[in-house]
Amino acid sequence: MNKKISLLLILLFVSSLAFSQGKHSIAADKLYESGYYTSAINKYKKAYSKAKKNKAERARIASRLGDCYCMTNKTKNAESQYKNAIKMKYDKRDSTVILKYGDALRYNEKYEDAKTQYQKYLDLCPNDPLALAGLESCDLLVELNANPDNCEVSRIKSINSKYDDFCPTWSDQSYTSIIFTSCRESATGKQNDEWTGQKFSDLYVTAIDVKGEKWSEPVLIDEEKIINTTANEGAAATNFKANKLYFTYCTDSKDKFVGCKIYVARRNGKTWVDPKMLELGGDSTGVSGHPAISDDELTIVFASDRKGGLGKKDLYIATRNSTTEDFGKPTNIGNKINTKGNEMFPYFRNDTTLYFASDGHPGFGGLDIFYVYLDKFHVPTSTPINAGAPINSSNDDFGILFHPEQNYGFFTSNRKGGRGGDDILAFVVPPIEFTLSGTIKDEKSLQLVAGVAVKLTGSDGKTIQAITNPKGEYQFTKSQIKGETTYDIIVEKNGYFNVAGKETTVGLTKSQNLIRDFMISPIPNEPVVLPDILYDFAKWDLKPQYQDSLQGLIQTLDLNPTIIIELASHTDMVGTVESNDILSQKRAESVVNYLIDRGINAKRLVAKGYGERVPRTLQKDYKTADYYFPKGTVLTEDYINNLPNQIAKDAANQLNRRSEFSIISKDFVPQGYTTKNDSITNIDQYINIVVDPNQNYVNYIKTKDNRTVSKCIVNDYTLTFEYSPSAATSYISADKAFEFLQKGVISIDDFDGDASQYISQGKIADKAVIILKSVRFGNKHIENVPVTVNSKLKTDLLLNKKTLDKIGVVIVDNINYMIIFE
Fold this sequence. Notes:
The chain is elongated and about 125 Å long. It has 16 helices and 47 strands. It is 21% helix and 31% strand.
């Protein structure tokens, strides 16, 4: 792994060799164990050339060279050296070289070869977490690369040099300048770091111009060597007010690396002064660095290789009660984040998310940037999430920084195409936007339907609506569809059953044009047979296996809370008429009770028992094991008696034993949940036996002024009508006509002639002629009924004899107060 800043990332290995070493090997090992990897490379090369006769030592040196190249980010060289070591069977002495070889192959994007090495290592060390993570990474990379985030990444030439530049942090509260770490030539001190081969790192500052376009030439944050020294300084973080600087400081002696600690300095005007080491415990020669500080400065997260960790570098967390106190004893942040590998470079984003870099979780290769969500105590509440491409690459990606109020920021990467080793890159995340659109089709005709209302109710409590255009299309724009919101969808049109759906943007991390098409079913004029509601001979019990068949009706009633249905029950023709009447009554009762128990308001159910009086007309073909009944067959008693055998007769009788429903109206007004007990005093009285299905009538009342007034259903809505046989035409009241227009029961297309001549603000003018699509009386209905608007009408509707004669002969029974349609 590359981590260049002697700042923190020192792997201390103690070599215990069973064979003799030359002076070059001894010198190289000493440099290696001190973390001076660049210097160690040259010594190992000489040692390798001198150990021609010692194959075991050459294999060991090759493995060490691979480690040094890996630590200085020369992954192609590392791959070659690990391969060479394995060729010389070094894996027999140290099997971890196989794992390292797999990592190098993955960093170099040779994923299939890497998988082979990971599997080889797992055969030797089953369930090794780093090998499993590497194997998973190779499998995930295809998906991750194929689905990059909606993010734009660019390089900042004016900031970066041909040396390592990394880990930006804000330098002021206006977010117009940043502090970053660099190993460029102008850094304090004259010597090079023997790890990286570059100057010891210092902290620099740069600012963007007023146009927000160009960054200034970076300069040292101080010239007085108060912060920057001849050693390594870097990986800094400022507090929320940008008046304190937390940074990493690493010291070296002549012969070895001493350690890294976190310091804090305060701002004094334009300079930083009074740096003091934070007391965070741990070994004095250990690494503690990469501070991330919460907005209130009461929580710090940092990287360390201290004893007792879970891997190489772990993240630790420490808290305090006030900014004037020392932090308490740090604790390991836990195995939800920390792995057997390296976890480093933490960063708080708005105190709700912790970003960090890791090579132990499945990723692209090298260090990847991950994030977890935090609770109010800064405790992770999620598993690490890979930040994805293009933020992450097969190289090292780390040190991310966000603008706290906008979706842009910076991060560090040593990916190809940079000016130096590590470069600071800028990223912009365009706003995530969503639209929702689709088409509505008629399920029966498959034709697109105009004028359909599509209503969305979001989990945020807001409701919006769109209407389909003449092509049956609806659309909700990006300003209407919000992120992290779930929408319940209701599709409504007069004359159709409502349809429901659900769409969500919760968890979506990319802009999307959501598509949702719907099919709507027209409300039929004929009864709808409930599927599979069949009964045993002479039984009325609703069998458990048929209760599921009522779920569709319950869903229809729930989605269409204003409809009222007639629930009809029929028997076969076996037995007496009287017994079948009672049986149909009991069967209707069992269905009604089931619906009411499931929350359906009893006032929406008009139940009738028809006994054996209405033989079934088949609406589709039926085929049993022994007989075929074609569509259109009427299962009369004569038809059944003439069937060839008893099996066919039994099948026909079974088809006649049925329950079905019809839509009576769509104007029920829900008034809260009612139960069977508080809406019906006697269920037997509530269910009517229909003695003559062919007889059709409606009851009427006589008003004080001797008008005949009854009820009918117009376009699925119940209206009061006056029957006036001698009237010259039929009328609709102006108020009711306008109400229907507002509710969408009628539209301008239902006017005879130019509707704009009659419609004005708040009313419809007299003499306008409206064509009513359907007028129902009991179980009879007529279509396309012309009515004239009349503002003086005393009832909703006035119908003359000419209109009612379209049903049949009309008889007014003044004794029983019935209008009978013969």
